[in-house]
Amino acid sequence: MNRRHPVGVLLVCLSVTSLGAIAGSGCSDNPVGRLCDLGASTPTVDSVVVASPSLDCVTRTCLHFDPNRPLPSGGDKPPLNVGLCTAECSADSDCDRVPESPCVTGFTCAIAVTAGPFCCKKLCICKDYIALPMSGDLPPPAACDAKQDLNACCNLEGRNNNPKYPLCKS
User: Fold this and answer.
1) What are 132-154's pLDDT values in tens digits?
2) Are 141 and 148 a contacting pair, CB within 8 Å?
3) How many CB atoms lie within 10 A of CB 31?
4) Residue 109 in 3-state DSSP?
5) Beta-strand pair 48-51/96-97
């Protein structure tokens, strides 16, 4: 005879709920900055690579951004086949740095690439790697100006399902 023990089931449920609350208390919406493996997308020197899906990242998006300035004290340049977990964003405050991140100065929200599926999308980029202007904001690249018909990034306004841009179909 198989009998269930309601008290045992209740204790298991409460334990799982308590663990979830404890684990969730340290989480953030866009955890970025963890080291991630680019897999087969190993970049060449001076290139930017967005690899997705990246199982190392909560957002499943890994960004390798080659530094274009000297690294700050304590900063470290990851190997070519390693990036940092990133997330889509609309402001710097959307980029929640994880404690184990090698990024010393935090993250900025800017456009990282102008080609491929992430073209003209804002991503969290480590400030250690980029020279920011005095304003603190990177201006959008000219290739992301939706008013210019020559710019064919499908993420730009007016490109999706537009006969002028046959590659942009949803």
Assistant:
1) 898 888 899 999 999 999 999 99
2) no
3) 20
4) strand
5) unpaired
**Paired tokens of 40:** 């087969």
Query: How far is it, in rounded angstroms, from Cα 167 to Cα 161?
Result: 9
Residues 7 and 13: their CA atoms lie apart, in Å, by 10
57 residue type, one letter: C
Residue 115 near residue 155, CB atoms below 8 Å? no
> Which token pair is 169?
């179909």
DSSP state of 18: H
Q: Does residue 120 or residue 47 have the better pLDDT?
A: 120
Nearest CA to 34 out of 131, 130, 138, 124 is that of: 124
pLDDT in tens, 95-121: 999 999 999 999 999 999 999 999 999
For residue 53, say if its preceding peptide bond is cis, omega within 30 degrees of 0. Answer: yes
